[in-house]
Amino acid sequence: MEIGLSIVVIITSVILVMLVLLHRAKGGGLSTLFGGGVSSSLGGSSVVEKNLDRLTIAVGSVWIIAIIGLGLLLKS
Amino acid sequence: MLTAFTRAFRTPDLRKKLLFTFGIVILFRIGSVMPAPGVSTRSVNTCLSTASTGASNVYSLINLFSGGALLQLSIFALGIMPYITSSIILQLLVVVIPRLEQLKKEGSAGEQKITQYTRYLTIALGILQATGIVALARSGRLFPGCTAAVIPDTSLFRIATVVITMTAGVGVIMWLGELITARGIGNGMSLLIFTSIAARLPSQGSAILQVAGGVVFTLVCLLGLAIVVFVIFVEQSQRRIPVQYAKRLIGRRMYGGTSTYLPIKVNQAGIIPVIFASSLLQLPQLVGQVWNNQGFQDFESRYLSRGDHPLYLAAYGLLIIFFTYFYVAITFNPTEVSDNMKKYGGFIPGIRPGRPTAEYLDHVLSRITLPGSLFLGVITVLPLALLNLTKDQPFPFAGTSVLIMVGVGLETVKQIESQLMLRNYEGFLR
């Protein structure tokens, strides 16, 4: 149980990092950090981005739940 | 003021953005207090209470930027520090590596590529720092003088789980920040720093109250207030260079002929130099941990690890001044500005367009940056020096944190205001 949850956490962590890196790099960087410059032209997010968002949120929730579960398991 | 707030919430568009931002911030805070799996919360708490005041010097700045999450070893323990560090590194590399410079010149597509590199580097740094911190915690050096085992089960598998979780946390924080930038209000990364620092303020304040008593506490509060006023004053001050636009007749319409001004802020660089400098000053400590050289470690712990040594203060101040000039040089290009002005038929009265204008702008900029950089240096170093007179204050980054909070706050309010301006004219700031 414990090891299974740990493996879930590890796998979801790796997937989560990949998904975040797959997102289009928007904003960020130091040029816009701390109110540097003009905010980038936004434009609607594409369908790909939207699906990526949903996927990230889903994986993120699994990640959080697994972490909480593992934490409770290890505590008891 | 309050009516402006209610008006901000009555605007559906703005309300959605504000609530979105709040939601993300709440998520961020929840993650910052949630312990990573395998970390014993009980022993962390006992260690925190025994070694409450600035025991772990090495990571105190990172701890500040992560809102105290670091020492709790939560899943968001590393906070946004890896992202900041990697941004700094890439920003410096742009000057050094020709290929990156070329990318930067390409415009937004190239910028996006650089941002993507920054994100990869962030994850790499996240792995590194997570490993470092977990290794410290495992060997018990994270809390010197505390015997309770922070991570009870030190099998490789368990340790790896913690490290990977923290790394994923870094990625998630990066994503949250980008979400705020894209769909919320203000810049995500700076807002997250803001929340982390703000979350630390109450505990820092109560620590001062307990350690030093009421008089010092009031003094610190007054000093903080004075800094806030001063910071706002300087942040808002700018020099206005008059620009006259020639009249142009296109078809039957008349364009231009207006006289405007080019605002040059006294503190063009914002607070980035402070963050650069303080991150750079952390480096020797990190090196000292890895490199087991007694001489270097002695030197480092004597001169560079605490804020009370004159050498440290001097290095801090000088670095801030240097980075202010560096950052202004990166962000504001006089030649480009003068070329743009020439293209649209604008000129500064009394100065010929083209190269003389660029030279004039450069001259004004380098002169106005001096007080700006001095201001940054004084406001970060002076509180450090003053507080050292009263000995051992747990308020190590007073200037930095106040500067960041005020800067981010001002910027965010300005953004809300410009959104509000779209609908009605009165905003927060008058």
TrEMBL record, chain A:
GO terms for biological process: protein secretion. The chain crosses the membrane at residues 6-22, 54-74. GO terms for cellular component: plasma membrane. Signal peptide: none annotated. Belongs to the SecG family. It is found in: Cell membrane; Membrane. NCBIfam families: secG. Involved in protein export. Participates in an early event of protein translocation. Coiled coil: none annotated. The keyword Oxidoreductase does not apply. It is a multi-pass membrane protein. It comes from Pseudofrankia asymbiotica. The keyword Transmembrane helix applies. One of its GO terms (molecular function) is protein-transporting ATPase activity. This is Protein-export membrane protein SecG. Keywords: Cell membrane, Membrane, Protein transport, Translocation, Transmembrane, Transmembrane helix, Transport.
From TrEMBL, chain B:
Pfam families: SecY. This is Protein translocase subunit SecY. One of its GO terms (cellular component) is plasma membrane. The chain crosses the membrane at residues 69-96, 117-137, 157-177, 184-201, 207-234, 311-332, 368-389, 395-413. Keywords: Cell membrane, Membrane, Protein transport, Translocation, Transmembrane, Transmembrane helix, Transport. One of its GO terms (biological process) is intracellular protein transmembrane transport. InterPro entries: SecY, SecY/SEC61-alpha, SecY_CS, SecY_dom_sf. It is found in: Cell membrane; Membrane.
